[in-house]
Amino acid sequence: MTDGRPRRPQVLVVEDEPANRELLARLLSSQGCNVESVSDGEAALETLEDKRPDLVLLDVRLPGIGGFDVCRAIKQQSATRLIPVVLVTGLHDRQHKIKGIEVGADDFLSKPFDQEELVARVGSLVRLKRYTDELESAESVILSLALTVEARDPYTEGHCQRIAAYARALGAQLTLQDDELAALQRGGYLHDVGKIGVPDLVLLKPSKLTVEEYEVMKRHTVIGERLCGELRSLEAVRPIVRHHHERRDGSGYPDSLRGDEIPLLAQIVGIVDTYDAITTTRPYRAALPADHAYEELMDETARGLHREDLVRVFIGLGRAGRLDAIAAAVESRPASRTTLSTQAGSDVSPL
C-alpha cells in the first residue's frame, strides 16, 4: 500500500572509504533519497541480486572486485542494465575515462566532488530512470493484454510463449543481430495482442468463420499495432504485429504486401505462427504431427506464401529436435511477466 505520493529514489553507494561513504549517504538522504551503502564490489553485486536501486554511485578503486568490473557486470545483466551508474573517481586521465565508457558508465564524478554537482547529476539520472521505468511499465501492460487474449481461449494456452521462442530460435539460426532477436521475442508475445478487440463470438467460434466474421478477425493486426502506440521500445515490434499475416503473393492482410515488402521479422513470425497453429489442438480439429506441418509449410511456400530459405531453416530446427524441446519447456513453466525485462517502480520522485 502507498499513500499516493511518489516513492523516494533508491540509491546504492559503493565506497570503501567510511568518511566518503557517510558523506554521500548524508548528502543524498537530505535530498530525499533512501540510501544503502556498501564498502566493496562483491557486496554491491550481492545487493543488486535482491534489490533494484534507481542509481548506483560507484567508486572506481575498490578492494577485491574493482569499480570498472562491477559496472560491466551491472550493464551485462538484463535485470540491472538500465540502472544508471555514476563512476566516482580520483583518476582524471583520458584512458580511465574511456575505460569507464567502455564498461557502460552513464556518468562520471571526480574526487573531491562538488556537492551541488553531485545533487544535479544524481537528480538528472534518477529522472531518466523514472522515465525508463514508465516505458517498461507500459510494455508490461501490453504484455498483460497479450496474455489476457491467450487466457480467453484455452486452446491457445502457451501460444505466445511458443511463438516468441520459435521466432527467436529461427532468428538466431539466421544469425540476426541481438536487437532483431529481442524484437522477435517481444513480437512473438505481442503478435496477437489486437485480439483483445475481437468479440468472443468470433474469437472462440468452434466452426469456420463467415466472410463478415473473418473481416472482424483480420482487424486484430491493426488494433494490435495501435495498442503498441508510440513506445520507442516497441518500434521494431509494431511491423511484426501489423504484418505477420501478410503473404508473399499479396494474399495476406491487412495491407496485401508482396515479397520483400513484408518486413523480415514479420515473415519469420508468420512462419512460426503457421507451424504452431497446425501442431496444436484447436476447436475445429486435433493437433497434427510436425511432419504434417512441414509438408504444409512447404506446400504454402510452393504457392508463394513464404520465403523458401526461411522455411527450410525452420524445418531444419524441427528435424534437429529444437522445436519439440521449446514446446516442452513452455509447457513446463507458467508465462513469465519478466520476458520484456520489466521492472517495477515507475513512481520514483525526482530529487
Count of alpha/pi helices: 15
> What is the CATH class of the largest domain?
Mainly Alpha
Counting structural domains, the number is 2
Task: Provide the CATH topology of the largest domain.
Answer: Hypothetical protein af1432
State the end-to-end CA separation.
22 Å
Question: Which regions are unreliable across 5 or more consecutive residues at pLDDT < 50?
Answer: 335-350
Share of β-strand residues: 5-15%
Major sheet: order of its strands? 2-1-3-4-5
CATH-derived architecture of the largest domain: Orthogonal Bundle
Radius of gyration: 25 Å
Overall body shape: elongated
Largest β-sheet summary: 5 strands, parallel
Structural class: alpha/beta
| Percent of residues in helices | 40-55%
Mean pLDDT: 86
Find the count of extended strands (DSSP E, 2+ residues).
5
Order of helices and strands: EHEHEHEHEHHHHHHHHHHH
CATH superfamily of the largest domain: Hypothetical protein af1432
What characteristics describe this protein?
Hypothetical protein af1432; 351 residues; single chain; Rossmann fold; five-stranded parallel sheet; alpha/beta; disordered C terminus
Describe the structure.
The protein folds into 2 domains: 10-132, Rossmann fold (3-Layer(aba) Sandwich), CATH 3.40.50; 159-331, Orthogonal Bundle (Hypothetical protein af1432), CATH 1.10.3210.10. Helix content is 53%, strand content 7%. It is built from 15 helices and 5 strands. The chain has a 5-stranded parallel β-sheet, sandwiched between helices. Strand 3 (55-59), helix 3 and strand 4 form a beta-alpha-beta unit. The chain starts with 9 loop residues before the first strand and ends in a 20-residue tail after the last helix. Residues 335-350 have low confidence and may be disordered.
